[in-house]
Amino acid sequence: MKTARIDNKGNPSRRGSGLALIVMSVAGLAALSAAMVTVSLGSHREQAAELRKSQASYMCQAGLSQAMYQLQRGQEGVVGSAHNPSNWGGGKFWVGSSSGGVNITVLNSTGTDGGDTVNQQLVVRSVPTNMWTRALFGKDRVALDSSVIIDSYNSTLGTYASQVSGGKARSNGAVGSNGNITAGSGTKVWGNATPGPGHTVSLHEATVSGSTTAATSQVVFPPLSVPSYTAKGALSATSNKTIPAGNWTYTNISVSENKTLTITGPANVVISNLTMVSNSNISINDAGGPVTLTIIDNVKLDSNSNIIPVSKNPANLRINMLSDNVADPEVVVALDTVSISSNSTVYGVIYAPEARIRIDSAFTLYGAIMARDLSFDSNCKFHFDENLLSAMSSGATTYEVLAWREISHSN
Is the preceding omega at residue 195 within 30 degrees of 0, hence cis? Predict the structure, then answer.
């Protein structure tokens, strides 16, 4: 039996089909390689674009850093300009500065690198080294009776009355304590109420517009000392009298009813005991400079008595009280008297680190007060002057960051 053998070697059509398969495979591999190259090039371009954007962002941040460096040294925070940018590491940047409100600065930074541009905005608030940052601060506690109003205004912008809207002026009338804070019915705090670490704010039908979160650390009260000046004895203002500019020490000062004692600034006046009878006045002639009163023992302001600078600028009157009227069970002492009666008015700052100050109803303070213990009867009003933040500052100013964001770039 013969077996037939099929031989394809001589068949041209079969050989053509195999060649076509090889060509198609090679073409497919080539297309795949081309696609991979395209993807690789696209990825490289994207990476390069991201790198340029990152470098432009670094330029922005370098500009903001330099602007903050300038602000901390009392400059305005402007760095270069679009026509005259600063150069760094192959890139360029410039920063503009503008006011965003009281003590607030807005920095707009532009950074460029390799054709890419990034804009960033930083909003900061200046925080001077200053103990006068709140309307009220009580080391041991703050107790507010009913219908007490606490808000703020800025004396550089005009009178308090000119800034009032909706029953209050501005909303920086903060209250603070190293202990607890309590507030009675109808009391309104337009600002933060900040108790001490581990302490609380108790509101009995009262309102606080800001935060009531406890502080993380206690506020330290700096000590007071009594300066030594020329002794003048006692002064009894049974008629209108004037204390000239200078540094003076009086054993006692008393001001009679319907009489005015004028103190001419600049002056530093040390007083052993101060007594103001009802409807009496101390006028601070602050045209030449501020006045500081240092009271060693007793302070008594009867009803309708007033201590007011002519300019009504609270920064121009500081009242230091060394009075100690807090009983210490381990020490037997004669306690000082600190008495401030109803309907009295003070423009200034009051500092009494060892005194318990209880103020009768309808007292009004434009400025700020710090004491060991603060207690206020109904209808008292406290208007914190925001100008104190800068006018009473000492030492270097620091800056608090309020906001940061990237903003769109406009050509």
Answer: no
Do residues 173 and 212 lie in contact, with contact meaning Cβ atoms separated by under 8 Å? no
Domain map of the chain by residue range?
52-128+396-407, 136-391
Class of CATH domain 52-128+396-407? alpha beta
Which residue shows structure tokens 């460029």?
Answer: 112
Q: Which residue is listed with tokens 């993807």? A: 39
Residue spans of alpha helices (H) in 193-251: none
Helix (H, G, I), strand (E, B) or coil at 26: helix
Q: How far, in Å, CA of 248 to CA of 270, rounded?
A: 6
Q: What 3-state class would DSSP assign to 376?
A: strand
pLDDT truncated to tens, each residue of the chain (411 aa)? 454 444 545 555 555 565 656 656 655 555 555 555 555 555 555 666 677 788 888 888 888 998 988 888 778 899 999 899 998 877 899 999 998 876 789 999 999 987 789 899 999 877 767 789 999 999 999 999 999 999 999 999 999 999 999 889 999 999 999 999 999 999 999 999 999 999 999 999 999 999 999 999 999 998 898 999 999 999 999 999 999 999 999 999 999 999 999 999 999 999 999 999 999 999 999 999 999 999 998 899 999 999 999 999 999 999 999 877 554 434 333 445 677 888 999 999 999 999 888 888 999 999 999 999 999 999 999 999 999 988 887 666 778 788 889 887 654
Q: Is the pTM of this model over 0.85?
A: no
Q: What is the DSSP letter of 156?
A: G
* Complete DSSP assignment for 357-369: EEE-TT-EEEEEE
For residue 123 the two structure tokens come to 């909003």
Name the residue among 153, 158, 199, 204 with its Cα closest to residue 180.
Answer: 199
What does the block give as tokens for 80? 């270069």
CA 101 to chain centre: 12
Report the C-alpha gap between 290 and 218 in whole angstroms.
30
Helix (H) or strand (E) holding 54: helix 12-71
Query: C-alpha angle 87/93/96, rounded to 5°?
Result: 135
